[in-house]
Amino acid sequence: MLTRQRKQHLLEVLKQDGQIVAKSLSEQLGLSEDTIRRDLRQLAEEGLLQRVHGGALPVSPAIGTFAERQQISSDAKPAIGRAAAAMIQPGQVVFVDGGTTAVQLARHLPRTLKATVITHSPSIAVELVEHPHVDVIMIGGRLFKHSIVGVGAATIEAIGRVRADLYFMGVCSLHPEAGISTGDFEEACVKRALSEAALQTVVLASPEKLNTASPYQIAPLSQVNGIVVNAAVAETLIAPYRKMGITITLA
Fold this sequence. Notes:
Layout: H1 3-17, E1 20-21, H2 22-29, H3 33-45, E2 50-52, E3 55-57, H4 66-69, H5 76-85, E4 93-96, H6 100-107, E5 115-119, H7 122-127, E6 134-138, E7 142-144, E8 149-151, H8 153-159, E9 164-170, E10 173-175, E11 179-182, H9 185-196, E12 198-204, E13 216-219, E14 226-229, H10 235-243, E15 247-250
Helix pairs in contact: 1-3, 2-3, 5-6
Pfam families: DeoRC (PF00455), HTH_DeoR (PF08220)
Keywords: DNA-binding, Repressor, Transcription, Transcription regulation
InterPro entries: Carb_Metab_HTH_regulators, DeoR-like_C, DeoR_HTH, NagB/RpiA_transferase-like, Tscrpt_reg_HTH_DeoR_CS, WH-like_DNA-bd_sf, WH_DNA-bd_sf
């Protein structure tokens, strides 16, 4: 089998099975694991999959610019934002992440809600400027332009001084085995700090992020209390998360 044919076969297996196990595939094709791993490495360099220990997973499409990501799942994100906003109770202190789905959460907060939103996202803060009863606390740091959020040591230090009731996390990827992950190391560190500083972590997961992986793990799914997903998502996709005891909210 030629290299091009092998790679095409690997992508077809990934699409069909949702994962590639290098050892099993090498036995099936009668090839060495080294050959399969080399092909996977090259496909990962082309951005066509995400390598993980023992094989590969689908790569998240949520790695484009902020403007590009606004066009992905544009119908699902407002519903997810509305459902997440309804979870916030009066008087709570809430971390709200950056990202296009989190912006929808901010837009759907009830005008009567009295609460405190702490965010490292200028986009979220601007969305809440006209909200009459929500106090907004901004966390600074170096601006990570891809996600329009603050990152770095100063950001993490400020987060560590807060104890929030809820953290609404935006992610690039969510997978039962690979956990929650994103495409930038520093951003992963900030998200992890936010989760550790909150009593509960709720992940905002638009459909394209489910069962994918990104390079930097934020945390295992054991750290997640809830996931908000679009109601149209197939039950087979969310069943593994239900089995882990995670509360699934269909938006």
